[in-house]
Amino acid sequence: MAGANTTTIELLKKYNFPIQKKYGQNFLVDDNILEGIVRAAQVSETDTILEIGPGLGALTGVLCRAADQGRVIAVEVDKLLIPILKESLGEYENLTVINEDILKVDLSELLSEEDGVAREKARVVANLPYYITTPVILELLDKSRFIKSITVMVQKEVAERMQEGPGSKSYGALSLAVQYYALPNYIMTVSRNCFLPRPDVDSAVIRLDLYEEEDRPVKPKDPEKMFRIIRAAFNQRRKTLANAVSHDASLGFSREEIVSALREMELSETIRGEALTLEQFSRLSDLLG
User: Fold this and answer.
1) Which H helix or E strand runs over 179?
2) Is the peptide bond before 197 cis (omega within 30 degrees of 0)?
3) Contact at 8 Å (CB) between 73 and 109?
4) What are phi and psi of 259, to 5 degrees?
5) Model pLDDT, residue 9
6) H or E element in which residue 186 lies
7) How far apart, in whole angstroms, are the C-alpha atoms of residue 137 and residue 119?
8) In angstroms, how far apart are the furthest CA atoms of the chain?
9) Are residues 168 and 25 located together in one domain of the fold?
10) Same structural domain, 129 and 206
11) β-strand 113-114 against 203-210: which pairing, if any?
């Protein structure tokens, strides 16, 4: 394989490492892609980097060299990988390895300060396991005040979904959440042949450049309510928006109230959620206040 990463292959053999499906482990073994991810992430020498799922550390080493005057925090859930990471990356004094589930880590505490000193906003870089992609992305977006950008390798279909617009079958709650918090930039497609073991689908690298709060494309009065409406609309996407949202008793809106708001927006009462733009969801949320 052109650009093959021999270090990863050698480590797998050296430690006879048992690849665990429960963690969705597919190790990237192409140096060209590793370098491409770091370039796409726009890492500078003084950056704070949060890497999720460092695996055997192939990408971690490149990040440590790129941010040699900054800090790399690598969060790895698999305890079997921790001694390997510490041995293979022991030369890097700017690296901290944390054995935790990223979905259980207090990101606010981790990214807000170090030794009592406020950090600059971090860049997140990750080769995300497919099975946790959406919850991790949503958690990172929720902590956007601590994050400058998110550069991730994900399933190609998911990367495409993040930048989809209304009318597409893949357009949904994830698309809207990403586009509210960030400007998505599709960087490159990555063949399934670049991984060990080889997954069933191709991957893609996408960078999300997070907006400052005042620069977000819409400004709903209650963002949390807007996203509850969005989730309700797409939880039953075959239904009309009025029926799907009124079906969610926790929101407390009658079908008549929703239809009235849609009419005020000059939209049909039979419209489905997949036809509304982010701006229209924001307006609907305000009208249902």
Assistant:
1) helix 173-181
2) yes
3) no
4) -60, -40
5) 66
6) strand 182-190
7) 21
8) 66
9) yes
10) yes
11) unpaired
Closest C-alpha to 285, from 222, 241, 233: 222
Q: Can you give the residue range of the structural domain that contains 161?
A: 6-215
- Rounded to whole angstroms, the Cα distance separating 273 from 69 reads 47
Among the listed residues 95, 98, 94, the one whose alpha carbon sits nearest the alpha carbon of residue 82: 98
* pLDDT at res. 114: 63
Of 35-39, 63-67, 84-88, 162-166, minimum mean pLDDT range: 84-88
- Greater confidence, 175 or 3? 175
The total number of structural domains in the chain stands at 2
Pair 16, 66 in one domain: yes
Task: Tell me the Ramachandran region of residue 210: left when phi exceeds 0, alpha when psi lies from -120 to 50, beta otherwise.
Answer: beta
Residue 1 in any domain: the answer is: no
234 & 96 share domain: no
Strands 48-52 and 71-76: parallel
In whole angstroms, give the CA distance from residue 70 to residue 96: 11
Question: What's the mean pLDDT in 151-174?
Answer: 94
pTM summary value? 0.89
Provide the residue count of the chain. 289
CATH code: domain of residue 140: 3.40.50.150
**Rounded distance, CA 161 to CA 257, Å?**
30
Do 176 and 238 fall within a single domain? no
Which residues, in sequence order, are CB contacts of 64 under 8 Å at separation 6+?
72, 89, 92, 94, 95
| Residue 39 amino acid letter | R
User: Where is the domain boundary, 187, 215, 243?
Assistant: 215
CATH number at residue 273: 1.10.8.100
Residues 131, 91 share a domain: yes
Residue ending a domain, choose from 161, 181, 215: 215
Q: Which of 288, 233, 224, 228 is nearest to 261 (CA)?
A: 288
> CA separation (Å) from 11 to 8, 79, 285?
5, 16, 52
71 and 25 share one domain: yes
Task: Give the Cα separation of 253 and 244 in Å (integer).
Answer: 11
